[in-house]
Specification:
By secondary structure, this protein is mainly beta. The protein has six domains: 208 residues, no CATH class; 89 residues, Immunoglobulins (Immunoglobulin-like, Sandwich); 98 residues, Sandwich (Immunoglobulin-like), CATH 2.60.40.10; 116 residues, Alpha-macroglobulin, receptor-binding domain (Immunoglobulin-like, Sandwich); 133 residues, Sandwich (Immunoglobulin-like), CATH 2.60.40; 82 residues, Immunoglobulin-like, CATH 2.60.40. It is built from one helix and 60 strands. A hairpin with a 5-residue loop joins strand 19 and strand 20. The longest helix has 7 residues. The protein is globular and about 100 Å long.
Length: 762
């Protein structure tokens, strides 16, 4: 897990770490076991117990993999492949022996040793198989992370069995990005570290007791001590490390802004250290001087430059101001409808933030700089009551303790309504689930009917809340008085089952979910969701789904739905989801569509990765053991694939779900591919077309982009046209009841070009 706080390592790269190798006795670790990563290609996240600084980031957690790698962010699919492209998608990472390893009959253990500020986090792979296909246990190894000093050790024990040639070769080293790494040339007593060659073919074990150590660079160094600097919003955190420790040693610091400070040196893992924290009033470059004393005698000094960037973190919220007094009184709800807020810095637009209930934002600059937050898009039934200017302003200050601020929202257009539906599905061999969020973006209460049409290969099994009706392939709910003030957004659940014989994994299945009435609805484009899904084997209820999936054109708008279920045995008080947005997606196009509960948004960026935190504080989600009907949550967002992506580009997305203080639960991985299948050459796919159901028996529903196609013609397998119909506003209902069973082809014509789709008539 990537811990995205305001602290970041100042001016450090992995390439600048110093490397050393030595040998000392290997001692097996006695600590907490981790059974989860003994399975092939599995990982789990562990809290370090302290903040560890690595390269250009600070972290409180680390994700360990069965494949001999430890990452400071959640792993992605195919994380066993040790090459730079995969490594970049994984992110900052330690690689004691990265390869396709296996943990069958092995153990994984971790422990926190010592006392602050000199603790050591240790993780051990014990009796690990070099190849996941191997039948023998080949090697043990430990990773040690040192608090304050931020030193990294890899140590090895050869074990009784030789290297297994089933593996293609391993990587040992550190990785930050495709332009910043160190890997070792081999596993000898004196390997050569390189930041130019990414070694992937190590095929020998390090000797028993062999230690490979990496030490972070220092801001400056004298003969007797060195200094590392870390950046906080208000100023630097400086650590002076002495080569030796003697009682009575101390350090005095001059910060370059007339401020000074002194601290005693305390004993550490490697000599001694003294720490300093300072607040700068302005961003800029400061000349810092530190002097090391032994008693009253100055024995060494260091002078270096520190570049400071001042920052504040502010919370912006939205609430319904029922009595229009501009104060969130008891009983006045937080808004759960989507919004988009523009952020200006000294009058210049610098960002836009999608949200529902609220968001956290970090501002940068100098004391006195003004940031303005202006909602540019609210649910159409809302308007801002306070502040009257429609703008919340924050002036940058040295103390990072900004009070939360909120927009007071009131209702307008009392007679209008806009119904919208979001949905996600899981399609198993013998059971399936459909989960939906339905909303009205205006305040006037509106009755609504939600209908799910599912694949006829399934049968109705159940629903929550109870449906008002169902047929062989539909489920229907009636919802009364749906309003933008409904909080949370009503969640619907449908269960379906497959009678014997069960579906074959990989079989395509389709769903259509609609909310009505459409007459009088201010926007009918969000009243229908069509999902093309694929039968899977066993599935986890904590999952992510993308629509459309598979092959897409560059620039396509994707809808991601993430669902979480409390499968524990007690209420989950706080839940949040971290999603590292794939680099192939346009981060600035992200918009929230719906959420099942109060949700805050936090955007993070480390210059390489863009991360969204979807935070559900105080959600108090019941557990599935005692409350199986009310133990899930869900949210949906849209984001565009970048324009100009070459054909064949893969877009993978995977999220981490955190229930209170438990280990992260990783979702499945979605996949999109830019382009079209090779067997679809010659078919124009500029505009997407959805046909449901297919196979069809009596009626076929067609939906496409409004204005893209004006007509459709159906021909049989002999090339004879059997039906011609116009398409109005991107939709058409086609009566196919009279057509004989068989294979047909539908040709769509219009401004979107000419596209051919296959239809199966039952």
């Amino acid at each position: 897990m990537l811990t995205c706080g305001v602290t970041a390592l100042h001016a450090q790269t992995v390439a600048s770490y110093s490397f050393s190798a030595f040998n000392t006795a290997y001692t097996a670790l006695a600590g907490s076991p981790l059974a989860t990563i003994q399975q092939n290609n599995h990982d789990t996240t562990i809290n370090l117990g302290f903040t560890f600084n690595f390269a250009n980031g600070s972290y409180n957690d680390i994700t360990v993999s069965s494949n001999g790698q430890l990452s400071f962010k959640p792993f992605t699919a195919n994380d066993l492949i040790n090459d730079t492209l995969v490594a970049d998608s994984i992110g900052p990472m330690l690689m004691p022996l990265w390869d396709d390893l296996g943990g069958d009959s092995a153990t994984a253990t971790y422990s926190l040793l010592g006392t602050a500020p000199n603790r050591i986090f240790k993780f051990e792979y014990s009796g690990w198989r070099w190849s996941s296909s191997s039948a023998t246990n080949a090697i043990s190894m430990q990773v040690s992370l040192y608090e304050t000093d931020n030193v990294i050790d890899f140590q090895y024990d050869q074990g009784p069995t030789p290297y297994d040639t089933l593996s293609g070769g391993a990587t040992i080293g550190l990785f930050n990005s495709t332009s910043d790494w160190q890997t070792l040339s081999d596993a000898t007593a004196s390997p050569t570290p390189s930041s130019a060659l990414f070694t992937t073919d190590i095929d020998q074990k390090p000797a028993s007791g062999q230690v490979y150590r990496w030490t972070p660079p220092v801001a400056a160094a004298g003969n007797n001590f060195s200094v590392s600097s870390y950046h906080n919003c208000s100023g630097p955190h400086l650590v002076a490390n002495t080569a030796i420790y003697t009682p009575g040693m101390g350090v005095k610091t001059w910060y370059g802004d007339a401020g000074t400070d002194s601290a005693a040196v305390t004993s550490g893992n490697f000599g001694g250290h003294a720490t300093f924290d300072h607040v700068y009033a302005f961003s800029g470059t400061y000349s810092v001087k530190m002097v090391l004393y032994n008693g009253a005698a100055a024995i060494d000094s260091i002078q270096f430059s520190y570049e400071h960037v001042l920052c504040n973190t502010i919370y912006i919220g939205f609430f319904y101001d029922a009595n229009s007094n501009c104060v969130q009184d008891a009983g006045e709800l937080d808004i759960v409808q989507p919004s988009l807020t523009e952020v200006d810095s000294n009058g210049v637009p610098v960002d836009t933030i999608p949200a529902t209930s609220g968001f956290y934002y970090t501002t940068y600059g100098n004391t006195g700089d003004v940031y303005d937050f202006k909602p540019v898009s609210l649910a159409p039934g809302y308007s801002i009551n306070c502040p009257q200017s429609g703008v919340i302003s924050n002036t940058l200050q040295t103390a990072n303790n900004i009070a939360p601020q909120s927009f007071a929202i009131v209702c307008g257009n009392p007679s209008d309504f806009d119904l919208a539906i979001s949905a996600t599905t899981i399609s198993g061999r013998h059971t399936g689930n459909i989960d939906m969020l339905v909303s009205n973006t205006y305040c006037a209460p509106q009755n609504a009917t939600v209908t799910v049409t599912f694949d006829p290969g399934y049968a109705y099994s159940g629903s929550t809340p109870p449906a008002v009706g169902h047929t062989a392939s539909t489920i229907t709910w009636d919802i009364n008085s749906l309003s933008a003030l409904t909080a949370p957004t009503p969640a619907l659940h449908g269960s379906i089952e497959r009678p014997l014989p069960w579906f074959v994994v990989g079989t395509p299945v389709d769903y259509m979910i609609t909310v009505t009435p459409a007459t009088g609805d201010m926007d009918t484009t969000n009243n229908t969701v069509i999902i093309h899904d694929t039968i899977t084997g066993s599935f986890d209820p904590n999952h992510i789904q993308v629509n459309p999936d598979g092959y897409i054109a560059a620039g396509t708008k994707l809808t991601y739905s993430i669902e979480f279920e409390n499968t524990g045995n007690d209420t989950a008080t706080n839940i949040y989801v971290l999603d590292t947005i794939p680099a192939e997606l346009d981060f600035n196009s992200l918009q929230i569509k719906a959420a099942s509960a109060f949700m805050n948004i936090v955007k993070y960026s480390d210059g390489i990765h863009n991360i969204i935190k979807f935070d559900f504080p105080n959600i108090n989600l019941p557990d599935s053991v005692h409350h199986p009907e009310n133990c899930t949550g869900m949210f949906t967002y849209t984001i565009n694939a970048k324009n100009g992506l070459p054909d064949g580009t893969l877009i993978h997305n995977r999220a981490g779900i955190y229930f209170d203080d438990n280990e992260v639960v990783m979702t499945n991985t979605t996949e999109n591919i830019i382009g079209q299948p090779l067997n679809a050459a010659g078919i124009n796919q500029q505009s997407r077309i959805d046909m449901f159901p297919n196979p069809a028996t009596t009626e076929l529903m067609v939906m496409t982009e409004k204005g893209a196609y004006s007509s459709l013609a159906i021909t049989n397998s002999m090339g004879q046209q059997v039906l011609l119909q116009h398409i109005s506003n991107g939709q058409a209902k086609v009566n196919v009841k009279s057509l004989p069973a068989g294979i047909y082809y539908i040709t769509f014509k219009g401004t979107g070009g000419s596209t051919v789709k296959k239809l199966v008539k039952m």
